[in-house]
TrEMBL record:
Signal peptide: none annotated. Residues 10-30 are annotated as: Disordered. CDD domains: Peptidases_S8_Subtilisin_like_2. This is Peptidase S8/S53 domain-containing protein. Residues 317-635 form the Peptidase S8/S53 domain. Transmembrane segments: none annotated. Pfam families: Peptidase_S8. Gene3D superfamilies: Peptidase S8/S53 domain (3.40.50.200). It comes from the Bacteria.
Length: 863
């Protein structure tokens, strides 16, 4: 044990939850007369759709009434009253169903809808937010909506039927209304580009894709919708390979093949192929996801890697990835390979690139760092396969599975007795894989929803990579001119370039997962590299890696959560376009980069390694730190209460511990300078840095000037826990710099069909009379930090303040419903550090721990 270990909080007190302020931005909406004029053509188009549907219905041999997915775009709409109206429409029409809502942000002002200031004046170049309501209707319900509109358009004071007044509220602020169509089903899903790429192979008779259906609450209706699609696909000459339906996350999908000629027809004229217009279809999506390694360079490592002498056989870390080389000298005896799908038979040793690298980084971190290797086995579930390419080996998620289904099955296999319960001790799952064609915008992906649900269900933390964007970069100036800029000038230029292209650099699914810890990359490593005129480093160390995805998450929550060393890569001059720089990618025998194990020929008995960079590497190294945190926590709990860490809180304690030492550093000032951001501009910084770069060593033990306490528990809705931190110090006689850092992590239930998505919200507050002790907030926006499931804040001051030696700082953790009713309790973990400037004659650790032991001995929380 360290000399000054972290300590457990005494048991919390139950308390009333804190109230949170609300309020919405102001905007201007058109007058009633203007609204009628605007919407009349749109409603007329819907009437035509109804008339055509009736004609189709009378001629249909199966007698199935057409369904319509109605999309209503409402400026700053409130979904509650409209949800009630939809519910009441459904009382008389079984086919009426609320599907989902989402938010479209930053919609530019127009002459009818525009943002206003406190004086009700138009904000120049302003933007508004709109909610998109998606509702499944039949002809009768759609006709009723149009009838209500007709009555309202003739008489503004028309009295809507009881329970349907939500439609009046929607009509007032309705910006657009239309039926879900081919545009939504095909565009911005990546399927069109994927099909065009596949069609370059003239030998392919059919092409695969995933069809995601609108999720129906009724199991019978899901079966009916699936059968209708199966018939349509069969009539085209295609096949249904597999299907999946997961009610808890609102997911229903088919993996299908479509004959080549019909794919070509869709690309030429999507309206001409019936399946594109099929009512149950929400999206067409590509299958599979490649993790490309265009080269497979490696070299023999002569440095020392101290392998553990004893390895605990119960894994805490799980790795879902490619297949590692189990008998690599740096991995021998450290892996538990579980391959029920027999992906191993498809892998040659030379192809085991990504899994070997990730396993090496989890076990040892960057081999150049000289860090401590973990002494516990790593559970490995292969979910990728290799295939050869002209540019080298490539590993990919197979295109004959639904990735959501595969991850679901893989996690159940870990914990469920009926599925095997093969590694129930796993608390962290490393997922260094991003779906390259699925960028997060405003609707959380099925895979992210799955991770959120599984996190709470099994109390497991997914550590997920933010995703890479390693395309060539337009530098805006000739490469030679860019290379001659100073380091700070390069940083500023790179920030501007990335900011202008940020729409295309968003998080890759499932990085937007709310319960997961999402990791971006810092452009830093432990290698030595000297650049030259044609091979340069485009930015400074500790700068956000230019290939790392930019946040934010759903409802502007902070994503990525943290950044970590992801390695550097050189930028090469593109001689075909002098203003472009291209990345050196793949595994390389020469620095810079993060150093990890690479596949070897067993007969050679050499220690093969290579350099690489990206968010995958950063994620794996954070998982390495997570394993170390687990061992530290075990020591703390055994020391204080004589028991191991309560299993149901391990994942959350590690999540909070990993983030607790995170800071932005000076790069935040560079970003503000480059983008001319006013003041602190904290919320603008979060998409670049999240909560910052963790300093894990600060959380491994305390110092004389710093004490860290740990709390954990479960909260019911509308309740709170109060933690007390005694601070027996005199702060009124002189100025003493002091700092308080608080990190709260929890797992929320989810509501997949609601934009708020997060069913429960937890947040901490410092009691009002204690704020004077640490009044200034650092490195965070007070509104942004409570949008997700991780709240990390730092407060400081050096002013003199009245404070008695019996005074305590109190922190309240509150819980409330956020996106509707939730059952059961919400688990959480909290880390709190208090420190003063080093060098002062104040023993913070001793004084606080003594005071705590005098009050109430620390005990385990009994649930």
């Amino acid at each position: 044990m360290p000399e000054r270990p972290l300590i457990l909080f005494p048991k919390y007190e139950s308390a009333e939850r804190k109230k949170r302020p609300g309020g919405s931005p102001k905007f201007h909406a058109p007058t009633y007369d203007r609204q009628v004029q605007r919407l009349q053509p749109k409603l007329k188009a819907l009437q035509s759709a109804i008339d055509n549907g009736r004609l189709h219905f009378t001629q249909s041999p199966d007698g199935i009434e057409p369904e319509y997915t109605l999309v209503l775009e409402v400026a700053m709409g409130d979904s509650k009253s409209f949800f009630t109206a939809v519910k009441n429409l459904g009382k008389d029409n079984d086919d009426v169903e609320w599907l989902f809502e989402l938010i479209e942000d930053d919609i530019a002002n127009d002459e009818d809808f525009y943002k206003t200031n406190t004086k009700n004046e138009c904000v120049e170049n302003g933007s508004i937010s709109c909610k998109l309501f998606c509702v499944l209707t039949n002809i009768r319900a759609l006709s009723e909506i149009l009838t209500l509109w007709k009555n309202y358009s003739c008489d503004e004071s028309f009295k809507f039927p009881i329970g349907k007044t939500g439609l009046r509220d929607v009509f007032r602020n309705l910006k657009d209304i239309h039926l879900w169509g081919t545009k939504e089903r095909l565009e911005e899903t990546g399927i069109l580009d994927a099909w065009r790429e596949d069609l370059k192979d003239p030998t392919l008779p059919e092409l695969k894709c995933e069809i995601e259906l609108f999720f129906r609450n009724s199991k019978i209706k899901r079966i009916q919708a699936q059968r209708r699609l199966e018939i349509m696909i069969k009539e085209l000459g295609g096949r249904v390979l597999t299907a999946s339906s997961i009610e808890a996350i609102g997911y229903h999908a088919l993996l299908v093949t479509i004959p080549r000629q019909y794919v070509e027809c869709i690309l030429e004229n999507s309206e001409g192929v019936s399946i594109v217009k099929a009512d149950p279809v929400m999206f067409f999506k590509p299958t599979g996801q490649a993790v490309v390694r265009s080269t497979a360079e490696s070299f023999t490592f002569n440095g020392a890697v101290e392998m553990p002498t004893e390895i605990n056989g119960e894994p805490v870390i799980g790795l879902f990835d490619g297949l590692p080389q189990e008998h690599h000298p740096f991995l021998e005896g450290m892996l538990v390979i579980d391959d029920p799908d027999d992906y191993t038979s498809a892998y040659q040793i030379k192809d085991r690139l990504h899994g070997t690298s990730m396993a090496s980084l989890i076990a040892h971190s960057d081999l150049n760092s000289g860090g401590i290797s973990i002494a516990r086995k790593i559970y490995v579930r292969p979910i990728m396969k290799p295939y050869p390419t002209l540019r080298g080996s490539c590993e990919y998620i197979p295109d004959d599975i639904l990735i959501v289904d595969k991850i679901h099955e893989s996690v159940r296999r870990l914990f469920e007795p009926v599925a095997g319960a093969v590694a129930s001790t796993v608390k962290i799952i490393n997922l260094s894989i991003g779906i390259g064609n699925l960028l997060f915008y405003n609707r959380i992906s099925p895979l992210a929803r799955l991770l959120d649900w599984l996190s709470l269900k099994y109390r497991v933390l997914f550590i997920v990579s933010a995703g890479n964007h390693s395309e060539d970069i337009n530098l805006g100036i000739p490469f030679k001119d860019f290379s001659q800029l100073s380091e700070i000038e390069k940083d500023i230029q790179m920030i501007k370039i990335l900011d202008e292209n940020s729409r295309h650099l968003r998080l890759l699914s499932p990085a937007e997962s709310m319960n997961s810890l999402t990791v971006g990359a810092v452009f830093d490593d432990n290698s030595n590299y000297v650049q030259n005129a044609v091979q340069i480093l485009p930015c400074s160390n500790s700068f956000p890696s230019p290939i790392s995805s930019l946040g934010k998450g759903i409802n502007h929550s902070i994503k990525p959560d943290v950044l970590f060393k992801g390695g550097r890569s050189i930028m090469l001059r593109n001689f075909l376009n002098d203003n472009e720089g291209r990345w050196r990618i793949g595994c390389n025998a020469n620095p810079p980069g993060v150093l990890s194990a690479q596949p070897i020929d067993i007969a050679s008995s050499s220690n093969k390694v290579a350099y690489n960079f990206g968010t995958s590497d950063a994620t794996a190294m954070i998982s390495h730190e997570a394993a170390k945190c687990y061992d530290i926590l075990q020591g703390i709990f055994y020391n204080e209460i004589g028991e191991s860490v309560p299993s149901e809180y391990v994942a959350l304690l590690i999540k909070a511990m990993l983030v607790h030492g995170a800071e932005w550093g000076t790069v935040a000032d560079t970003i503000c300078k480059a983008l001319n951001l006013p003041g602190r501009a904290a919320d603008d910084i979060h998409k670049w840095l999240g909560y910052g770069i963790p300093n894990i060593s600060r959380v491994e033990e305390c110092t004389k000037s710093r004490v860290t306490l740990i709390g954990y528990g479960d909260l019911e809705k509308e309740s709170a826990h109060l933690y007390e931190l005694p601070l027996p110090f005199d702060f009124h006689s002189k100025k003493i710099y002091r700092c308080l850092t608080v990190t709260l992590a929890y797992f929320t239930p989810i509501k997949p069909t609601v934009q708020k998505y997060r069913a429960a919200q937890l947040w901490f507050t410092i009691e009002d009379n204690n704020k004077k002790l640490v009044p200034s907030r650092l490195n965070a926006d007070d509104k942004a930090v409570v949008r997700g499931t991780l709240q990390h804040e730092k407060f400081c001051s050096n002013s003199a303040v009245t404070w008695g030696k019996e005074d305590s700082l109190k922190i309240r953790i509150s819980c409330r419903e956020d996106a509707g009713i939730f059952e059961n309790t919400i688990p959480y973990a909290i880390f709190v550090s208090f420190e003063v400037a080093e060098g002062l004659d104040i023993d913070v650790y001793q004084d606080v721990t003594t005071k705590i032991k005098q009050k109430v001995p620390a005990t385990a929380v009994i649930i």
